[in-house]
TrEMBL record:
Keyword Nucleotide-binding assigned: no
Residue ranges of coiled coil: none
Origin superkingdom: Bacteria
Name listed for the protein in its UniProt record: Map/microtubule affinity-regulating kinase 4
Annotated source species: Paenibacillus dendritiformis C454
InterPro entries, per database record: Atg1-like, Kinase-like_dom_sf, Prot_kinase_dom, Ser/Thr_kinase_AS
GO molecular function: ATP binding; protein serine/threonine kinase activity
UniProt keyword annotations, A-Z: Kinase, Transferase
Family annotation (SMART domains): S_TKc
């Protein structure tokens, strides 16, 4: 198993065989269930390719017919309960006796649009539209060109370590703080839900699991192995911003170590994760400590705010910026020495 040496190309090196994003690969069965290309919705949108799928939805790239602009349309389509009607468009419950469950899930899905509509932040995907058609619900958001953070890390796309921490990770902290100030928690922070554009800037997507944490009450269970805090595995456990802090820490662990931490359900009797600096030797002790503390099973043992992450990430940025600057100064000197030696030997 490869170990990161702390140089810029090592962000994500050797992870092709180690990382799998659950729900981001489109299965053949989903393609058979998906809307056909060029299907029109509301006479406003034209469906394009399937981008991804999950247990409750199919996501399409689409065009706004009048403007020609790209957008993303998420269709409520619970794989275990739904089927297409004979028109190949309408969605029906296919399980006898599960109609109430189907409608409950549809109601939960329909909450994402109004929630997202009230958010406005440069690092959060923009809401466009939401509507009902053919017995299901469709959420339309802006199209974010780029790749997921998981792909970005796997393919080593970061131009430098210093820029990665400052321009990619620190803005995610800003977005999360903004979300929490609105009384919300995202509940599904992970590399697959962060899109990175060509400039390395992030966009947080998929608010289907988000809830108003101050409202209390029972919350639906949506979890991702390796990234979800223990309290997210319960409908009745108290959930607050520390759940997102856990998921942020797990995402940073993935960026540093090349794989997510051991799932929380497998650490119940021994609350430990593989030490970060054993796998990423270039990581500062400060960032390693903050991430490890963020992964505590007990929510009360995690950092109470995002400030420790901001400080640690900025310190990491400064360290790499200095190192890269010194390396940049040496490279021209080395080139000049080689040129001088070449002239002297002629």
């Amino acid at each position: 198993m490869e170990e990161s040496t702390g140089t810029a190309p090592d962000i994500g090196r050797g992870m092709q065989a180690r990382t799998a994003e659950r729900g981001n690969q489109v299965a053949q069965t989903v393609n058979e269930s998906a809307l056909k290309r060029n299907t029109r919705l509301q006479n406003k949108y034209r469906i394009g390719k399937v981008m991804s799928s999950g247990e409750l939805s199919i996501v399409y790239k689409a065009r706004h017919i009048e403007s020609g602009s790209w957008c993303v349309i998420k269709e409520f389509f619970p794989q275990a309960l739904a089927r297409r009607d004979r028109d190949r468009r309408s969605v029906r419950c296919r399980v006898p006796g599960a109609r109430a469950q189907f409608e409950e899930q549809r109601d939960i899905f329909a909450k994402e649009g109004p929630l997202l509509e009230r958010l406005s932040h440069p690092c959060i995907v923009d809401y466009v539209d939401q509507f009902e058609e053919g017995g299901t619900v469709y959420l339309v958001t802006a199209y974010c060109p780029g790749m997921t953070l998981a792909q970005y890390i796997r393919e080593g796309q970061a131009p430098s370590q210093a820029r990665f921490y400052k321009e990619t990770m620190l803005p995610i902290i800003d977005a999360l703080e903004y979300i929490h100030r609105q009384g919300l928690i995202h509940r599904d922070i992970k590399p697959g839900n962060i899109i990175i554009d060509r400039e390395g800037r992030p966009k947080l997507i998929d608010f289907g699991s988000a809830v108003h944490y101050e409202a209390g009450g029972r919350q639906p269970i949506f979890t991702t192995a390796g990234y979800s805090a223990l309290e997210l595995y319960s409908e009745t456990a108290r959930q607050d911003p520390t759940a997102d802090i856990y998921s942020l820490a797990a995402t940073l662990y993935f960026c540093l170590c090349g794989q997510p931490p051991l799932d929380v359900t497998q650490r119940l009797f021994r609350d430990q994760v593989e030490p970060i600096r054993q796998r990423s030797r270039g990581t500062t002790p400060l960032l390693a400590r903050v991430v490890t503390k963020g992964l505590a099973i007990n929510a009360r043992k995690r950092p109470a705010s995002l400030n420790p992450f901001r400080i640690a990430l900025y310190a990491e940025h400064l360290k790499w910026a200095l190192k890269e600057r010194l390396q940049g100064q040496r490279l021209p000197d080395q080139a000049a020495d080689q040129e001088s030696m070449s002239r002297g030997g002629s």
